[in-house]
Specification:
Chain A: Residues 1-55 are annotated as: Disordered. Chain A: It comes from Caenispirillum salinarum AK4. Chain A: Pfam families: BPD_transp_2 (PF02653). The structure holds three protein chains of three kinds. By secondary structure, chain A is mainly alpha-helical. Chain A has helices at 45-48, 56-61, 63-77, 85-110, 118-136, 140-162, 167-187, 189-192, 213-235, 238-248, 250-255, 260-286, 296-309, 314-331, 338-352, 357-365; strands at 198-199, 203-205, 208-210, 288-289. In chain A, helix 10 packs across helix 12. Chain A contains 16 helices and four strands. Chain A is globular, with a radius of gyration of 24 Å. Chain B is an alpha/beta fold. Chain B folds into two domains: 1-79 and 170-253, Rossmann fold (3-Layer(aba) Sandwich); 90-168, no CATH class. Helix content of chain B is 38%, strand content 23%. Chain B has helices at residues 42-49, 72-77, 95-102, 111-115, 119-138, 154-167, 184-199, 211-217, 235-239, 242-249, and strands at residues 4-13, 16-26, 31-35, 57-62, 65-66, 80-82, 172-176, 203-207, 220-225, 228-233. The termini of chain B are far apart. Classes of the chains: A mainly alpha, B alpha/beta, C mainly alpha. Chains in contact: A-B, A-C, B-C. At the A-B interface, helix 9, helix 10, helix 11 and helix 12 of A face helix 2, strand 6, helix 3, helix 4 and helix 5 of B.
Chain lengths: 371, 253, 291
């Protein structure tokens, strides 16, 4: 891609910079405004006067700085409140789910393309790691990376034909892909252990074995902050704007030069890789893996996390993952009524906060909500 | 040499010919208007030229290169940009971000630099934002920089589309009814903007119902009726053409 | 050889007819509201489980069937009134999540109200198998096919010949215009949900003697019904019927001649292939995007 210095005139044709000349009169009725710059003159205050100066406070209000800081602080401080192994386990599971949800949110929330099959990618990553490490003795870190590459390629191959589909047809196709993967994992029992699942070796990196809860907590917490950072970077970049434009108006994006298919495929692959990495790590963490990981239910759960927390909000994805992971733990006392109540809560939240928890709450504080 | 050459273009929708054997050329550096009664095929023509639709028959040449059947983003990369009759604004973004989308071709759109927010991304975005603000000011939108697009009034969104299209630094700019739904004052402002764009060397093609505007700013007018060329020429020639009068006022009984 | 073929064909048509009924339910609701109702499979479960438990409580079977179908229709009304109608300007994904929430609620309620066991019903007209060209077919198969055919004919008549049916069609094409010419759009929505629920319940009653039922049977049936509706082309009820029959037959022949383990996978592979070449399904509206 060509990154021309935006204000330098293009040799072949006139640059937009000199569309307006200093001598031009302001159109009637228009409010006064600073005269646009003449070409070639050095940039002075006039040209950048429109850009508000960003003080420390303004920077902290931005999700990329302030929000990330808050997330990092929460991750760092949370262990003080975790009293036992069970608490750690829930926190670690939240971290795993949040990373997948952050990736999926890029696809669903920002790019507007639904996937009801992402647990399939998570499952392929998980089984690739589990099988190569446990059965063939690969180093776990190598397996994780190779798995991510394999899943990325798989997603890439699938994405092109699939992402031509729109709306419910895309939902159907992704659902189909997820189900096919899940059926294969169930049926190829000699490799995967079938519905009974398989035992997975622990996660070791250069001889260090992750076994204590705080080992895993540190790893997952660190990865969560990195995932959020990457996601926030993407959103506020040419790639991110292209993705959001695909959601906002695909035809508008196309006519200003956005190859919409390329960006849809790109983010589909990115979100699948996020899922794959979590799949690999999750298999080592639980040290057991069953096709449930790749099931339709898990795919739906992941989508619910994104939508419940708030589409097009990185921190919404984290909140959604935390809610959906922790809620069932709080509801276990209901025993047989657990699913009934869980479903009711889900329906009520989506009916009354259709944009999801975080954007709806953010809108209460400032018009427009989080971007 | 002409900038755009349309040759024997045909577009059928289920047997109906929306564009029927249409040929014309557009010279660089002019303001070229396309007029015609409702349903004459003006917007369809725009969609064909910009690659949104694929022609049933015929060819389009842009800048001496055959571009028939090329995708809109490929045409954009060659210097074509447009606005839409029924707004195509990304309502999930701010006004400025919409303009920045228009800057896409001039920024680094690869994944990895954006993922890690390399300095080139930060620099590129900053320069693009400055330019975006200037363009917004140029079309009279300086009070809307950080507004969410879905909170802006219709007239402002019309201009925002123009700013977005200009951000791509096109050679050819196609405006589909830029003055539709605007009041007189706003219309005249758009007039001015179009003239200034043309003066800067961008070729403008305009679909417009506001005849006052068309007659005043066009160098050349193409009249469509039922997808065919009724006539073309200077505003003076077109104004006096009896076929045009008949098409607009209905057949004289 | 021929007997085997006929056997697979009937088995495919039977499950295909059930998918068709579920798919019809998806299509009716989609047409009226543009909502994809992921609780459609739960209507099937409610029809079957409801009949089983009413019959067990001593209600005569025919009455139990009618009460279960009406009861399920009421659940459909409630879903529309209490959930779908309450959402204003919710995105497609949000609506999908709401209906998934409803499916979880209905499964949870069935688990509490009924139980988690598998149940079956006696076949409508005895278990005497019928021999057709070397294939053995149960009489229940004929009930499934016959009633499905009857429903398709009745719906065809309803949409083409009655004012109410035409009102529903009009609403699906353009809700605003329908409202302007005096059609009670919210009644149409309510009716569509009720009709879909009833269709699902009928499917549930029909299939229970063959496959038995429990609180979770709706999950896979719902997905297959959705697949049928998509394959046929969303918004085309009779496309959904064809889609359902194709799915059922592909599954039955796939399971019989290729691999029974991959029976379900084959249905989805067929759908993916179909969508790659026909992105709007077999009979879906193609239409050019207007900009």
């Amino acid at each position: 891609m060509n990154e021309a210095t935006p204000m330098s005139p293009r040799p072949s044709s006139a640059s937009t910079a000199n569309i307006s000349r200093p001598g031009d009169t302001t159109p009637p009725g228009a409010p006064e405004r600073p005269a646009p710059q003449a070409p070639g003159t050095p940039r002075t205050g006039a040209g950048s006067a429109g850009r508000p100066r960003q003080g420390l406070k303004a920077r902290l209000m931005k999700p990329r700085t302030g929000g990330l800081l808050v997330l990092a602080v929460v991750v760092a401080v949370l262990p003080a409140f975790l009293q036992n192994a069970f608490h750690y386990d829930v926190a670690i599971q939240i971290g795993f789910n949040a990373i997948v949800a952050i990736g999926l949110n890029l696809l669903i929330g920002y790019c507007g393309q639904i996937s009801l099959g992402h647990a399939g990618f998570l499952g392929v990553g998980a089984y690739f790691s589990a099988i190569t490490v446990t059965n063939f003795g690969w180093p776990p870190l190598l397996s994780l990376v190779v798995a991510a590459v394999v899943v990325g390629l798989l997603a890439f191959v699938i994405a092109r034909p699939i992402l031509r589909l729109k709306g419910h047809y895309l939902a159907m196709a992704t659902l189909g892909i997820g189900l096919i993967i899940s059926i294969i994992l169930n049926q190829e029992a000699q490799l995967t252990g079938g519905p009974d699942g398989m035992i997975v070796d622990p996660f070791t990196v250069f001889g260090f074995e992750f076994k204590k809860p705080w080992h895993w907590y540190s790893l997952v917490g660190g990865l969560l902050v990195i995932a959020a950072w990457l996601s926030l970077n993407i959103i506020d970049s040419p790639v991110g704007r292209a993705l959001r434009a695909v959601h906002g108006s695909e035809v508008a994006a196309e006519v200003v030069g956005v190859d919409t298919t390329r960006y849809k495929v790109m983010i589909f692959v990115v979100s699948a890789v996020f899922a794959s990495v979590v799949g690999s790590l999750g298999a080592h963490y639980i040290m057991f893996l069953s096709p449930q990981e790749a099931s339709f239910f898990h795919s739906v759960e992941l989508v619910i996390m994104v939508v419940l927390g708030g589409m097009a909000s990185t921190f919404g994805a984290v909140v959604g993952a935390a809610t959906l992971t922790a809620l069932p733990q709080f509801l276990t006392f209901l025993e047989d009524y657990e699913h009934l109540i869980f479903g009711l809560i889900l329906m009520l939240v989506m009916i009354f906060l259709p944009k999801g928890v975080v954007p709806s709450l953010a809108a209460l504080f400032k018009r427009g909500g989080e971007k | 040499m002409s900038l755009l050459t349309v040759d024997t273009l045909v577009k059928e929708f289920g047997g109906v010919r929306a564009i029927d054997d249409l040929s014309f050329t557009i010279d660089p550096g002019t303001i070229h208007s396309i007029i015609g009664p409702n349903g004459a095929g003006k917007t369809t023509l725009f969609n064909l030229v910009t690659g949104v639709y694929t022609p049933t028959f015929g060819t389009v040449q842009f800048n001496g290169e055959p571009v028939t059947g090329k995708k809109p983003y490929e045409l954009a990369a060659r210097g074509m940009s447009r606005t839409f009759q029924n707004l195509q604004i990304c309502m999930n973004m701010t006004a400025l971000e919409n303009v920045l989308v228009g800057r896409h071709l001039h920024l680094d759109g690869r994944l990895l630099p954006s993922l890690f927010r390399l300095p080139r991304i930060v620099r590129g975005d900053r320069a693009a934002e400055d330019m975006g603000r200037e363009l917004m000011a140029f079309v009279g939108l300086e009070k809307y920089f950080d507004w969410d697009a879905d909170a802006m009034p219709y007239g402002a969104l019309k201009r925002l589309e123009i700013a977005r299209a200009l951000a791509a630094e096109p050679k050819l700019l196609l405006l589909d009814e830029p003055a539709a739904g605007l009041n007189d004052v706003e219309s005249r402002e758009i007039d001015n903007v179009i003239k200034k764009v043309a003066e800067s060397g961008v070729t403008v093609v305009l679909v417009e119902h506001d005849m006052k505007m068309v007659m005043e700013i066009s160098d050349h007018i193409l009249v469509l009726d039922y997808g065919r060329k009724l006539t073309e020429g200077t505003p003076q020639e077109v104004r006096q053409n009896p076929d045009v009068i008949a098409a607009y006022l209905g057949q004289v009984a | 050889m021929l007997g085997e073929f006929i056997q697979y064909l009937f088995s495919g048509l039977t499950s295909g007819a059930i998918y068709a009924l579920v798919g019809l339910g998806f299509a009716l609701i989609y047409n009226a509201s543009h909502v994809i109702n992921f609780a459609q499979g739960e209507f099937v479960m409610l029809g079957g489980m409801g009949t089983v438990f009413l019959a067990a409580a001593g209600v005569p079977l025919p009455l139990a069937v009618v009460v279960a179908i009406i009861g399920t229709a009421c659940v459909g009304f409630a879903l529309e009134k209490l959930a779908v109608e309450q959402t204003k300007n919710a995105s497609v994904v949000t609506l999908i999540i709401i209906t998934i929430g409803a499916s979880i609620v209905l499964r949870g309620a069935a688990q509490v109200l009924f139980d988690k066991q598998f149940h079956t019903l006696p076949a409508f007209s005895g278990d005497e198998p019928i021999n057709v060209l070397g294939a053995t077919i149960t009489s229940q198969t004929l009930w499934v096919l016959g009633i499905t055919a009857l429903i398709v004919v009745v719906l065809q008549w309803f949409f083409n010949r009655t004012l109410l049916g035409k009102a529903i069609l009009a609403t699906s094409v353009n809700p605003l215009a329908a409202k302007l010419v005096g059609i009670n759009v919210s009644f149409v929505l309510l009716l569509s949900f009720g009709m879909s629920a009833a269709l699902g319940a009928i499917a549930g009653v029909l299939i229970t003697p063959i496959t038995s039922t429990n609180f979770e049977v709706g999950i896979m049936l719902g997905l297959k019904g959705f697949s049928a509706a998509i394959l046929g082309g969303l918004g085309n009820p009779f496309g959904a019927v064809i889609g359902g029959l194709i799915l059922g037959i592909v599954e039955a022949f796939g399971a019989g001649y290729i691999s029974s383990e991959y029976k379900d996978a084959m249905a989805f592979i067929i759908i993916l292939l179909a969508l790659f070449f026909m992105p709007s399904g077999l009979f879906g509206k193609k239409g050019t995007e207007r900009v």
